[in-house]
Amino acid sequence: MTTTGSCVNSSKIFRYSYRVLLLFSMTLLTCLLLFATAKPTAAARETFNVHLHPALTSVGISWPNKKAAVKYKIYRADVTDVEAGSDRIPERSSYKKVKTLKVKSPKGKLLSWSDKKAKKGRYYAYIVRAFDKNGKEIADSWDGSDWISYACKGLGRTWISNDGYGENYTNSRKELHISVMSDQVGIEVSNAQVILYRKKAGAKKFTKIATRNLKNGSLDYTDKNVKSGKKYSYRARVIKKAGGKTYKAKMSKTITIPAVNFHAKYKVKCLTPAGTYTDRDKLEITMMLQNKGKYNGTTTILRKDGEYTGSEYHGEKKGVGSGLYDFRFTMYSKDNVTWKPIPAKGIKLPKKKPLYLKGEILKGEEPVIYFGGSAAGWTSYIDSEGGMFDYDGPGAGYTSAMLNFSSGTGGAYLEWD
Question: Is residue 381 domain-shared with residue 347, that is, in the same domain?
Fold first, then answer.
């Protein structure tokens, strides 16, 4: 019985395997037949570049004429939001046809068209499609990428920025520097002017403070009529007179700059004893921090929960050792008695009174923590680049700060990178 049963099972396996093999062979044959009789896939359409030429009364478009093309269709999309900073690039379906152009030009000649119906002050992107005499599309300017070229009819938005940034130290409590620019650089802004407006903190309205000529599409202006310790807001507009008309760009955004010390200065005192700490992964230190300068801007101490990035403690003493450690602030006190966690929004450094701070030095991969505080013979300081401090000064960018325990001084300023 065992032998018979074994023969029956082998027979079933053979028949099953034969059916599978037959089915596979038929499927393979069908695929080969389909492949042999299939029509070749149409070649990808050729792409070409469209060049835009903004003007006061239109947006000019030019592109290379394509061989065998007798007709072009031009499509337009409003991308003003993209120009303002949105990352939502319009889909191809967002472009609407605005012109059909029939041509009889030879290959190699540039074709052009002026979009005079575009709205003034709006930004547009364009697609051009080429068709042959049979109505077949043979090329277009859409390449499917997430990068687009766009232009504005009339004068584009006026841009304004704080020009006293970085290590130039050009801004101060006595003068503020502003840069104005038009995004229509070239002939359309030749002989154009900038009207600059200002508003002091507490005032209700902006007032015109200057009218200046643009040079190569930009203007640098220094406002020396400021009072130390006050904040000033600025905005600007580019205008151009042509053909008996006055064209105005969209008003710039508003920037606010305090007329304070570019470089804030602090008095620093460490309250934790110096030494070599070998029995702990973290060292909590306490310090006193105080403004040293009547016209310092507002300094905010920040808490970095769960991270130590952007701030480092340097401790070194000849004959003892040296180390570089991650650092962060954790708590604050106004009297060195009652302590509170630094809130998420940070804690502002008082204008005159001292602020007491606790922080953590993380040993990390270092074998020990060398901590000098303000003890003699030690080189000891905290360096921060955008991690612990926010200084509201007359610069721009992130806050770079340092607290030097060895000298008992500190400083901070805004540094554009």
Answer: yes
Give the other-Cβ count within 10 Å of 332's Cβ. Answer: 21
CA–CA gap between residue 149 and residue 272 (Å, rounded): 59
**Highest-pLDDT range among 42-56, 142-156, 286-300:** 286-300
Confidence of residue 212 (pLDDT cuts 50, 70, 90): very high
Cβ(74)–Cβ(29) below 8 Å: no
For residue 131, the domain's CATH number is 2.60.40.10
Q: Is residue 282 one of the residues assigned to a domain? A: yes
Q: 173 — phi, psi (to 5°)?
A: -80, -5
Domain boundary among 209, 237, 258: 258
Is the residue at 387 inside a domain? yes
3-state secondary structure 216-230: CCEEEEEECCCCCCC
Cβ neighbours around 397 below 10 Å, total: 14
Q: Is 410 helix (H, G, I), strand (E, B) or coil?
A: strand
- 16 located within any domain: no
Is the domain of 164 the same as that of 251?
yes
Final residue of a structural domain among 258, 292, 324 = 258
Q: In total, how many domains does the chain have?
A: 3
Write out the H or E segment, with its range, that includes residue 64.
strand 59-64
Q: Please, is 35 exposed, middle or buried when counting C-beta atoms within 10 Å of its C-beta (0-12, 13-18, 19+)?
A: exposed
Whether the pLDDT of residue 241 is over 50: the answer is yes
- How far is Cα 213 from Cα 278, in angstroms, rounded to an integer? 66
- In one-letter notation, the amino acid at residue 358 is K
Instruction: Name the token pair of 243.
Output: 């053909």
Q: How far apart are the C-alpha atoms of 163 and 159, rounded to whole Å?
A: 12
Residues 303-345: pLDDT tens digits?
Answer: 877 777 678 999 999 999 999 999 999 999 999 999 999 999 9
Whether residue 189 sits in one domain with residue 95: no
Are 50 and 112 in contact by the 8 Å Cβ rule? The answer is no
Claim: this prediction has a pTM higher than 0.85: no
DSSP assignment string, 128-150: EEEE-TTS-EEEES----S----
Amino acid identity, position 222:
T
For residues 398 and 310, give the distance between their C-alpha atoms in angstroms, rounded to a whole number. Answer: 11
Q: What is the DSSP string of 314-345?
A: EEEETTTEEEEEEEEEEEEESSSSS-EEPPTT
